[in-house]
Structures are given as structure tokens and as C-alpha cells.
Q: What sequence folds into this?
């Protein structure tokens, strides 16, 4: 049995190396040899025959069919008929059985499946490419095809984000998938620049994520593909490359409607690379670093390197690896701090050698989460030498940290107890859609950090590799997750369709890519899967996935998030960590739910702890509390947590949820209730709130909308009141107090208008127009102070908070005047001229004294001068159906957001002007420099 307490950093079992014959077959049938795109840097300029990693994001042509009926029939596989949209299901509905379909037309799946072979352990289960070249005669894959009428795009590209939104109940894409035109079949084409001097090199295409069912042709030859849109994958283009000639790449994507419970995005929405190597090279995801015996004076660093010999002859290789410290920006810092003994191997042609080494790192600087620890990083640089000549150089970023998953006390990082203060995050980045952008992701993490969040659950799929670079660098703990469904389905066309063929390769590829990241501390192989309901049969599937993951990495425990399975059921026996969704607080406990056929569960922390005394318990999902920023609905419940109903936290006419932050979806609970449940059970390791940022799609409870309500932060990145409730609890050392609601209630004079205060203090006194409304103290398991019988009168609300009897923090809210002007605030004053960097500008509607007018919704128009363009605007209103790229947008409760992107290679000053009828305009100036 795997020991949870003091989780060991044992030597990891090597994967079996593919036999020579098979490997050759794989190679010559155009399949796939592998290099790690995540860690390999563009590092070999002096050695043009060594490794190069070249971004090929720019200069693509894009075409999408207007409808599926017009599209070509180059399909991956046939699909079952759709029986219903997800918009009418509750999020925790029981997943249902797959429907069988038989192919009645030619499908390309047999040519795509061999791409998976390197991630299928049993060589007998490897797929053999059939003869033939399907699609080879299709015009779009021909070198001669004229694509100049196709749209010019740069990657990462999300074909749906620009809209328009589809409104109404009859929309093709409903609220669940975000009302954006995400479904459909599309093609990307690009000519690759392959000089004649590349002859003899291997050339790989590395795609970090394409949504979905990607199939790739090069020079008219079907090379392979990868259906799951969230994974990273590689194709070996070498057999079809013409060095010095025309090399035409054509990629077909097919993104089905009814395939997701949230907005998946569509297109090649992550980075794409060409990796060129010597025939003898470090394999894909070819290094694996683990650390053990960690003390202040030393740590043992273990290294495994896989070297592929794809040349025609046997080679003698020397592998040398040195370790360097990385600075806070991720740059190599000074001289090597440790060196591994040189490793030698004789590798027969077509074989992979697995070498292992170990070294002592003196006075290791540990990786750990702020604020109490620092996320120090190292890089191992592995050089391959053949006859004394360097033929490859490969970088592996890693960290040194010890983890303990204690069933009675929770998580320890480097010996320090760390309560998991986490959030769930979907992959979209708000108004820019799913197209990955490092700055947009970094901004999200900065805002979450400000709130006191220290952990992210990548719900429910592998993130962009750059997001893990950020979590490594910024010190967030990560629960890395691979699937939302197994063989039972949540939507008619979701991942369950490809689970039988792809679950092993997807799971192995996922772990191999991310296992060197110190921020990743737990693997999750499922979320609320239907197999919770199918006893031993379901558990067997879970066990298989867990075993796969542990074979690839046994230094981290696994979990699967369970909203239904109870301690006496089969599935909870499988994972190393018990991951509970909502069950800790109990689900649908109020009497109103009596007799429901939905999940109804008494609080489960104690029963699980009793049944599994050796497993740590973690809430993988909590809350699903909902609110609309700045919307307050009356009357206000006296309870601490309530399901959303019309007249009680909700208003289905305007599709908004009250920001008193007391209301949750039917199976969820308010933040207050979750805090109490966790604090009463100190053995619980912490929580991942559903969720950090609002996301596109899944707008529970109002599916007429376009984006979610459950974020603590709205889609534009503006904190809702809940942000301060979490900050008060998660950053007890930060003096802060926050009053809600706003104080502009002309229609409520004399009416009861409750005032709630979130503070990191333990006591507070509230004043209305200078008159005390009483001093209140938080009772045990209370997380807000509430004055529920305040009668509204205009003027000033002020709160003075105390901690241990001493004045600690204060906050003031005033009745404002009418809108008079705009104020704009850029999140950064200088950005990079790399064509990717972004500045996020908040535009506020203010009265004549500069105070934000809470309920203002004036229309604002934005324009920009200088080396930049406005790529999107937003206001955080889940019901706003104005397309994201629009430069005109109404404010939502006083705020609007403009997202501006630099132009590649152009320096200067950006001038953003925001105008609104009758209001004083606002101007922001932002500098653009090279190599900022
Ligand atoms: C959970 C589910 C999440 C999300 C959430 C919405 O049951 O795991 O993916 O759907 O509900 O409240």
C-alpha cells in the first residue's frame, strides 16, 4: 500500500522501452517520437544541428464551414444522435450510459489512433496504421490549394470568442456552452519554412491544445491527430517533410455541439511549435526529476533521461546534466549548483535508452507557497554528446519540496502545515475566450493571490503548459485534473465517446508532460463521474486510471472528485486522497428539498474520516455560491446559506443573483457555511471553491445568460463582494474591512436595508451618518458581521473593525451623486512590444467627486491610438450579449473593462480614450517597450 503519511519520493519505475522492431515500425509509419515541448527552450543557436524549438503561431489561414451539412466528410468517427441539451440538466445530474453507434461510412480513426502508441504501455495494444491515405485527395490538404481567401489568423486562436452571442432558448449553442459559435468544422493551413539544411534532422509538430478532434496532413499525407482538445500532443512530420521545398500543413478540427458542460473554445487555442532535433535526442517528455531526503543542508535529486536513437546506426552517447538556480523571472542564475555524473549509453538504432542518475544539491532553496514560503526553482540542463560533439541540449524546470498528506492534519509542505485555500478554474480567460495568453492568466493569478488563494484545481482538464510555468513561478499549489467523464456521459457528445481508446494515452501524456512541475501536488483522474453510481464496475475503471497515473509518477497521490459516492461505496476505496464535492457541508439539506430525486446528503467529513482513517480528505469543490457583482436583491435572508429562488436571492426576470453572498446553487452552500464545516473538521486539508473567476457557459441558475455566476470574481476580473469574505478569512493578518451593499437606494428610504461587513478583525462597529448602529463580535464559526435591521437613509456608512480589542481596519461607503465623468486605470504602465502582452484597463463611472456610481450603466465607447489594438471589452454582466470585441459597451454597476494588446515589434505610447455621452472622458497612457 502506498503510504500517505510522509509521502515518499521513491525512485520511480521506468517505463518499458519500446522494442527495436516496434519502434522502427512506428518511426517509418510516420509515427511519433517525442521531445518535451514544455521544458525544452529555444536553446541551440550555436549548434544548428541540435535542438531548436520554433514558435509557428503566426501566419495561418483559417476556414470554417457555415454549417455541418456543408462540411467535408473526413470524420474521425461517427457519433450518436443528440438527445438533449445540457441546458436543462442540473450540474450534479446523474451521468447516463453511453449509446452505441456503428460506423456506416469511412472514418479516419484507424489512421489517427497510432498517434497514441507512445502512451500505451502494452505494445500488443499498439495501433497499426492501415494502408492508404484518407483525405489525401481533398483540396484543402493539397500544396497547390489557393487559401488566400481564407481568414488570416495568428495562434493561439479561438474561433468562437468574437461571437456573436446566440440568444434565446432556441439558440443552436445554448447557455451551457456559452452561446458562442463554438461548434463546427474548420481548417487551418500554414506553409512551414524548412530549409534544405534541415535534411537529416527530425522535425516534430508540437501542439499544446486544439479543440477538438484534430487531424493533420502534411504535403497531402495524413500524419495523425489527437481528439481530446485539452491535451498536448506531438506528431513526427519528418517522413513527409521536403527540406528546402514546399511544406504545406493542413489541420482539420471538429468541435461538436453538446460536447461540454461549459464553454470549450474552438480552434488551435494554445501554442504550436516546430521542434527540430538531431536523430539522436532527448525523447518527448524525456526527463523526469524527483527529489528526496530534503533538509536545509542537502537534497538528493534523481534524474531519468530517455534518449531516442532514430538514426540508422548504433551510437555511443554521453549525457551530462548540470543544475542551475532560476531567478524570480525564471532566468538561469549564475554558475551550476550541482552536476550529475556523466551517463553513458550505447543505443541501437530505433531504440530508446533510459538513463538514471542522482546528485546531491547542497543548501537547496526549497519551493513552497507564499506568503510563508518562496517558490524557488531550478533548471537541469542535459547535454547529449556524441564523439565529444554536443548534439542535444534539453532543459527541465523543477523544484525541491517535500509533501506530506496527513489524514489527521492535512497538507504539509516542507514540514509546514498549509491549509489549502484553493479555487477551481476553467480554462477560458473571459472576454478573450479560450485562446491562451500568459498575461491574462498571470493577471488572474495575481488577483487570486491578493484574495489569499494559494491553490488552483485545473477543473476539469489539463491546462496550458504556460499556466503551470506561472504556478511554478508564483508558488500556487496545483491539483492537476484530466477528465470530467469516463464511460458514462454528462453531455451526449462529451469525452465518453473516446474514453475507451484514449483514456490511457491521454492520462499518460498528461502526467508525463506535467510531472516535473513542483506546483503540481495531486493528480485527479475524474470529476463527479457517472462511475460513482456503478459500484465495482465503476471503481475498476477508476483503479485502472489511478494505476496508469501512478506508473507514470508515484511521487504524488491521486484523487477523483466525488459528489455522490459515500464511504461504503466502491469508488472512494480507489484514490489515495478522498476528494469531496459539496459533501463535507452536506447537499440539499434544507427541508425544502425533502422528497427530491436529486442528490441529498448529510455532512460527510466525519463518515469518510471514520471509514478511511489512512486517507487525507480534501474538498475538491465547495460552495457553488452565486452572485452578480453589485446587484443586491431584497428582502435579504436571515439564514447563512440559501438556495437561489425568485424573491430569495434571485430574480429570473433580470437573470441576476444577489451579492449579499448568502445564496448558492441547490447542491451548494454559502462561503460562510463552508468555512464553518472546514473549521469544525481540522483533519480536512482545505477546499477548492467553485469557483475563482466566472467563466463562459454554465450560467446556473439562469441559462438565458452567457457566463457563470459562481465566480468569486466576475468574468471581467472585478471582485464581487465575496472576494472580501474570502480575503477576510484567508488573510487574517491583513487589516481589512468591507461593507456591503452600496448606499444609493433612493427608492428604499426608510426601508430595511441590511448591512453586512466582511473583516479580518473579530469585532466591528457600524455608523450610519455618524450614529452608531452597534458594535458586534463574530461568534465562533461566524464569518461576517451583520446589521440586518438598518433603515436606509442616504449619507455615509462607516465601519471600524477591531482585532483583539484594538482598532484594526475601517471602510466607508457613501451615497454618491449622479454620473459625471469616467476614470480609467490601467493594470500596468509599461507593456512589452511582443504582440502578445496585454494591458487591462478598468473604466469607472464616477460622480463629480470621483466616487464610483454603483448602479450606473452608461454606454462607453473606447478608442486607442499608438502601437496597440483593443481586443475585447467586458463588464462582468452574465447577461450582456454584446460581442466581446465590441469597442462600445455599457458599464455594469459602474465598471467596464478594456483589454488592449501590443503590436509585434512596435514601441511607443498607447493612448486609450473612453467616452460616454454627457460624461467627462478618460484617458490612459501606457508605454510599449521591447523586452520589457
Ligand atoms: C459541480 C461540477 C462543476 C460545476 C459546478 C457548478 O457539480 O463539478 O463542474 O458544474 O457543479 O455549480
A:
Amino acid at each position: 500500500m502506498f503510504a500517505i503519511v510522509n509521502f515518499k519520493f521513491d525512485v520511480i519505475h521506468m517505463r518499458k522501452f519500446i522494442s527495436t522492431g516496434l519502434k522502427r515500425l512506428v518511426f517509418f509509419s510516420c509515427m511519433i517520437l517525442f521531445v518535451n515541448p514544455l521544458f525544452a527552450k529555444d536553446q541551440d543557436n550555436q549548434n544548428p544541428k541540435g535542438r531548436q524549438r520554433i514558435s509557428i503561431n503566426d501566419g495561418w489561414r483559417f476556414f470554417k464551414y457555415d454549417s455541418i451539412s456543408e462540411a467535408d466528410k473526413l470524420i474521425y468517427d461517427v457519433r450518436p444522435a443528440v438527445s438533449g441539451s445540457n441546458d436543462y440538466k442540473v450540474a450534479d445530474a446523474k451521468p447516463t450510459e453511453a449509446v452505441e453507434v456503428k460506423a456506416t461510412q469511412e472514418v479516419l480513426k484507424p489512421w489517427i489512433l497510432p498517434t497514441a502508441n507512445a502512451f500505451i504501455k502494452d505494445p500488443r495494444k499498439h495501433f497499426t496504421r492501415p494502408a492508404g491515405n484518407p483525405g489525401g485527395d481533398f483540396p484543402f490538404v493539397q500544396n497547390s490549394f489557393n487559401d488566400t481567401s481564407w481568414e488570416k489568423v495568428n495562434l493561439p486562436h479561438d474561433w468562437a470568442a468574437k461571437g456573436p452571442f446566440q440568444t434565446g432558448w432556441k439558440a443552436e449553442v445554448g447557455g451551457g456552452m456559452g452561446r458562442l459559435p463554438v461548434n463546427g468544422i474548420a481548417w487551418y493551413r500554414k506553409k512551414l519554412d524548412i530549409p534544405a539544411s534541415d535534411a537529416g534532422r527530425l522535425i516534430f509538430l508540437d501542439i499544446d491544445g486544439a479543440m477538438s478532434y484534430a487531424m493533420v496532413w502534411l504535403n497531402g499525407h495524413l500524419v495523425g491527430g489527437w481528439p481530446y482538445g485539452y491535451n498536448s500532443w506531438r506528431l513526427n512530420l519528418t517522413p513527409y517533410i521536403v527540406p528546402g521545398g514546399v511544406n504545406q500543413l493542413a489541420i482539420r478540427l471538429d468541435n461538436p455541439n453538446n460536447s461540454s458542460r461549459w464553454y470549450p473554445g474552438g480552434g488551435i487555442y494554445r501554442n504550436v511549435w516546430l521542434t527540430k532535433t538531431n536523430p539522436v535526442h532527448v525523447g518527448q517528455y524525456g526527463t523526469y526529476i524527483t527529489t528526496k531526503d530534503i533538509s536545509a543542508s542537502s537534497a538528493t535529486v534523481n534524474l531519468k533521461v530517455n534518449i531516442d536513437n532514430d538514426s540508422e546506426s548504433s551510437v555511443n552517447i554521453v549525457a551530462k546534466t548540470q543544475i542551475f538556480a532560476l531567478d524570480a523571472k525564471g532566468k538561469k542564475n549564475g554558475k551550476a549548483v550541482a552536476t550529475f555524473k556523466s551517463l553513458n549509453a550505447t543505443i541501437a538504432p530505433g531504440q530508446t535508452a533510459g538513463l538514471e542518475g542522482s546528485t546531491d544539491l547542497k543548501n537547496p532553496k526549497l519551493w513552497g507557497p507564499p506568503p510563508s514560503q518562496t517558490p524557488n526553482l531550478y533548471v537541469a540542463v542535459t547535454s547529449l554528446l556524441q564523439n565529444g560533439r554536443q548534439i542535444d541540449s534539453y532543459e527541465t524546470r523543477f523544484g525541491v519540496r517535500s509533501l506530506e498528506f496527513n489524514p489527521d492534519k492535512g497538507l504539509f509542505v516542507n514540514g509546514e502545515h498549509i491549509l489549502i485555500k484553493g479555487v477551481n478554474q476553467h480554462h477560458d480567460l473571459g472576454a478573450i475566450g479560450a485562446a491562451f495568453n500568459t498575461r491574462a492568466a498571470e493577471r488572474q493569478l495575481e488577483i487570486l493571490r491578493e484574495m489569499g488563494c494559494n491553490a488552483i484545481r485545473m477543473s476539469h482538464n489539463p491546462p496550458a503548459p504556460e499556466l503551470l510555468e506561472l504556478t511554478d513561478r508564483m508558488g500556487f499549489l496545483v491539483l492537476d485534473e484530466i477528465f470530467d467523464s469516463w464511460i458514462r456521459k454528462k453531455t451526449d457528445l462529451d469525452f465518453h465517446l473516446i474514453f475507451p481508446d484514449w483514456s490511457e494515452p491521454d492520462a499518460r501524456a498528461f502526467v508525463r508532460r506535467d510531472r516535473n512541475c513542483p506546483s503540481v501536488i495531486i493528480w485527479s483522474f475524474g470529476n463527479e463521474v457517472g462511475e460513482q453510481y456503478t459500484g465495482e464496475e465503476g471503481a475498476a475503471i477508476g483503479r485502472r486510471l489511478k494505476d496508469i497515473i501512478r506508473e507514470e509518477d508515484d511521487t504524488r497521490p491521486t484523487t477523483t472528485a466525488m459528489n455522490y459516492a459515500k464511504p461504503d461505496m466502491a469508488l472512494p476505496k480507489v484514490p489515495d486522497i478522498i476528494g469531496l464535492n459539496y459533501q463535507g457541508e452536506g447537499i440539499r439539506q434544507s427541508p425544502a428539498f425533502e422528497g427530491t430525486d436529486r442528490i441529498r446528503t448529510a455532512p460527510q467529513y466525519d463518515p469518510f474520516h471514520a471509514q478511511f482513517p489512512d486517507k487525507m480528505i480534501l474538498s475538491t469543490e465547495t460552495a457553488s455560491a452565486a452572485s452578480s457583482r453589485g446587484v443586491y436583491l431584497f428582502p435579504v435572508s436571515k439564514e447563512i446559506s440559501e438556495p437561489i429562488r425568485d424573491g430569495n436571492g434571485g430574480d429570473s426576470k433580470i437573470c441576476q443573483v444577489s451579492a449579499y453572498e448568502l445564496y448558492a446553487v441547490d447542491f451548494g452552500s454559502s462561503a460562510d457555511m463552508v468555512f464553518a464545516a472546514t473549521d469544525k473538521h481540522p483533519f480536512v486539508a482545505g477546499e477548492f471553491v467553485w469557483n475563482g473567476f466566472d467563466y463562459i457557459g454554465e450560467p446556473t441558475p439562469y441559462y438565458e445568460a452567457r457566463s457563470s455566476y459562481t465566480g468569486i470574481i466576475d468574468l471581467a476580473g472585478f471582485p464581487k463582494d465575496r472576494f472580501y469574505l474570502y480575503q477576510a478569512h484567508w488573510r487574517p493578518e491583513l487589516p481589512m474591512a468591507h461593507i456591503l451593499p452600496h448606499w444609493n437606494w433612493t427608492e428604499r428610504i426608510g426601508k430595511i436595508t441590511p448591512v453586512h461587513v466582511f473583516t479580518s478583525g473579530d469585532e466591528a462597529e457600524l455608523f450610519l451618518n455618524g450614529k452608531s448602529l452597534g458594535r458586534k463580535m463574530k461568534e465562533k464559526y461566524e464569518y461576517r458581521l451583520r446589521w440586518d435591521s438598518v433603515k436606509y437613509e442616504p449619507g455615509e456608512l462607516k465601519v471600524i473593525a477591531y482585532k483583539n480589542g484594538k482598532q484594526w481596519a475601517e471602510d466607508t461607503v457613501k451615497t454618491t451623486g449622479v454620473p459625471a465623468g469616467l476614470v480609467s486605470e490601467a493594470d500596468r504602465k509599461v507593456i512589452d512590444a511582443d504582440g502578445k502582452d496585454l494591458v487591462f484597463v478598468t473604466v469607472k463611472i464616477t460622480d463629480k467627486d470621483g466616487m464610483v456610481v454603483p448602479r450606473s450603466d452608461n454606454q462607453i465607447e473606447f478608442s486607442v491610438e499608438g502601437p496597440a489594438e483593443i481586443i475585447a471589452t467586458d463588464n462582468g454582466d452574465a447577461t450582456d450579449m454584446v460581442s466581446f470585441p465590441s469597442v462600445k459597451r455599457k458599464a455594469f454597476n459602474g465598471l467596464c473593462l478594456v483589454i488592449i494588446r501590443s503590436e509585434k515589434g512596435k514601441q511607443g505610447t498607447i493612448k486609450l480614450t473612453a467616452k460616454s455621452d454627457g460624461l467627462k472622458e478618460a484617458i490612459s497612457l501606457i508605454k510599449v517597450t521591447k523586452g520589457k
About this structure: The pocket of beta-D-galactopyranose is lined by residues 91-92, 261, 459, 527-528, 563, 581, 621, 624, 665, 690, 698, 700, 710 (CB under 6 Å). Residues 1-47 have pLDDT under 50 and may be disordered.
